[in-house]
Amino acid sequence: xxxxxxxxxxxxxxxxxxxxxxxxxxxxxxxxxxxxxxxxxxxxxxxxxxxxxxxxxxxxxxxxxxxxxxxxxxxxxxxxxxxxxxxxxxxxxxxxxxxxxxxxxxxxxxxxxxxxxxxxxxxxxxxxxxxxxxxxxxxxxxxxxxxxxxxxxxxxxxxxxxxxxxxxxxxxxxxxxxxxxxxxxxxxxxxxxxxxxxxxxxxxxxxxxxxxxxxxxxxxxxxxxxxxxxxxxxxxxxxxxxxxxxxxxxxxxxxxxxxxxxxxxxxxxxxxxxxxxxxxxxxxxxxxxxxxxxxxxxxxxxxxxxxxxxxxxxxxxxxxxxxxxxxxxxxxxxxxxxxxxxxxxxxxxxxxxxxxxxxxxxxxxxxxxxxxxxxxxxxxxxxxxxxxxxxxxxxxxxxxxxxxxxxxxxxxxxxxxxxxxxxxxxxxxxxxxxxxxxxxxxxxxxxxxxxxxxxxxxxxxxxxxxxxxxxxxxxxxxxxxxxxxxxxxxxxxxxxxxxxxxxxxxxxx
Amino acid sequence: xxxxxxxxxxxxxxxxxxxxxxxxxxxxxxxxxxxxxxxxxxxxxxxxxxxxxxxxxxxxxxxxxxxxxxxxxxxxxxxxxxxxxxxxxxxxxxxxxxxxxxxxxxxxxxxxxxxxxxxxxxxxxxxxxxxxxxxxxxxxxxxxxxxxxxxxxxxxxxxxxxxxxxxxxxxxxxxxxxxxxxxxxxxxxxxxxxxxxxxxxxxxxxxxxxxxxxxxxxxxxxxxxxxxxxxxxxxxxxxxxxxxxxxxxxxxxxxxxxxxxxxxxxxxxxxxxxxxxxxxxxxxxxxxxxxxxxxxxxxxxxxxxxxxxxxxxxxxxxxxxxxxxxxxxxxxxxxxxxxxxxxxxxxxxxxxxxxxxxxxxxxxxxxxxxxxxxxxxxxxxxxxxxxxxxxxxxxxxxxxxxxxxxxxxxxxxxxxxxxxxxxxxxxxxxxxxxxxxxxxxxxxxxxxxxxxxxxxxxxxxxxxxxxxxxxx
Lengths: 509, 472
Fold this sequence. Notes:
heterodimer, A: two-stranded antiparallel sheet, 22 helices, B: two-stranded antiparallel ribbon, 2 strands, globular
């Protein structure tokens, strides 16, 4: 539309949220504002998507000097990787405003702020700017969880906040180390991510900085063994917060690994890739098994989400284009499927006042449309062919097999656990005998059905025709891995070949 | 000569103004409110003057005035601005505070002006005797201010502790100055530096002993480990606006002179760098441990002040004696001062009569009753915790950058770990304000808006300094 589209996508929601908080506006106005602003962001997002060219470089760039004497600039841009997280956020957030009609003003205002901050984090091309949005992102979550959460909200709030801030501060130290290293190697201050990739990092301190970054992102993703905040926070948080946390914020952790750690710390990343991918696979198994045992739908989804994040992270750690492309693809697939599942869990909770699996049953007889939507999202989440989940998981497993057959086989077999808990839960909640409670379950209203329809269609379209998405992701993925290729000839040499990928896609179809 | 006076004008204004206020306070017709307004006016004018000086002479480093006894650099000007700003904010919060705690007499504001005058002199002093005189001008006024509430036991205890220990610190300083004079043959910083460069530092016992005692005196004033024990009691006993003033302006002045002293010679800085390294780490961690256990807000803020002193010591360890600009220290002091003063300004009006609301538990549910005050306090706490986009974040960023640039990776890492620990007690207040139900109506004397206005202005300053770092 014009040259400041990204800034508008970032600051329009933030400004609207702050104005709502500072003025004595009512709930109704807050919700209408939320709908209007998130729709505006959606339109801007679609605009960016249609004008996006399938090349690897940053597009829609903006650059304003901010603290020039230390090389910090207000610089934005999107590439194929950030584009899809940006889009996922702008497609999914209007849903929340449309579906939840009776929340308080602070609820809607905080959602708007978090939307803007997330857009900022994925668009930032300067690492300090990224850090600023990364931290701002946490504040609305802190307040929403603490103000509108469940019974044990305060413990959960403190846990997630202190965990995340500990990670971010370690990352801050690492970021500053990068800046100082750049200053000593090139004689000027610069914090642009593209510049930092030129750094020649080796030695013990560089490895420490790498660990600082990885801990921060491992906490956000969350990667085993930093996942312990997740079940509490996801369970206690109000639906919209869980939705934002799982559908988008966790993805920004993966995005940050792809965008910052892979190209900047190429040597250390290659060295630790095996350990990290083992941690991803182990997290998948552990959280998957934990999910089987859960009796609370939301808590089960929380563990399932953690398990899926394990496989998404694994795709990044495989260090090849298939794995990385699969990860980005799976990020969108997971945002649409698990995100929507959390919203469905919220709907069940709203209508039944319980989330206990054993208290439910037979919902499908009374709410066939709801059951159908739920089933589609659920099948996408377990990776049924024909849904978006399949393409992503297939690419990741392929990448993993190339990286290390052992890990590939391990990851492939672990996917079965996902099918176990999901289908078993579906059976107990939607089939079997209905009881006094579930007899009263009202099906989705027409409005709710229309709200969810685009997302459900997206799941199927992405499962059947992935080409328009993959052609935008792939060039960016190759650029991120270019540095790695220099250090790891043997493993990556065969996968940089683009034709290789063409074959792959034909296989998929 | 004219130029010299122009540069000193803010200090002279505050000093003469202090005398004027003292005379004015003898007239019965001049009420506390009028005195408060005059105090604000005085600090406001002096602040603008200092700002004018800073803008008019932006890039003269180390300009010697008064025959090398004083120095005017960007650093001293910035510190002066912080001190005068603190004075202004203190007068504003005191105006409202004394509506609810009626033990004020009109001399209060002249004492604030006197101490600010001493602080300004301290930031500029380049000679040991001037430093001592400035230190005492500042301290004497502060002693009285700490014990201003004569009826209160805690205030009396506070002033006694502070006076006794402060006297020791003053004595240490004098002794140190005498030894340095013996070792270097002068009390002027420039000549001491010349003497060290010519004769070396390490072998000169008088110089080492003297600088040790001087540094001890400074560490006492900034409440660094192991001279931090007085802080919690004194801050708790002093009345809220004074606690805020002590925590910010006094610390600014002492850190300014501390930095000026350490950079006078590279040999001196090298000699103490290891000691300061351990002291800064211990200061941060001891401060955090003290703060985590507190129930009273004022004591928590006192302990968090210790932690911030630790961060500033990191900056002192990392300063480059060759190209010293003091920008990092001044910026951090500004960021810290705005946050701390803001909380104390808020406490001045939220505390109620006889400071009845001073514990964490008393502020439960504040956000439900007074959302704007709670939001402002949250902003200050986030700034002190170093969360972007507040001023505290940029301050921490500059400090860690300077530490890593100086090769002090370990200090940077310890600083980061310490900020993680400090999240605990900052978050605790936010959690209390927002996530609990209100137990109190938080009614205050609503017709006096001065402290609330001051709080809101400072809240805006947190972002203004964070987004446009003009000082550095």
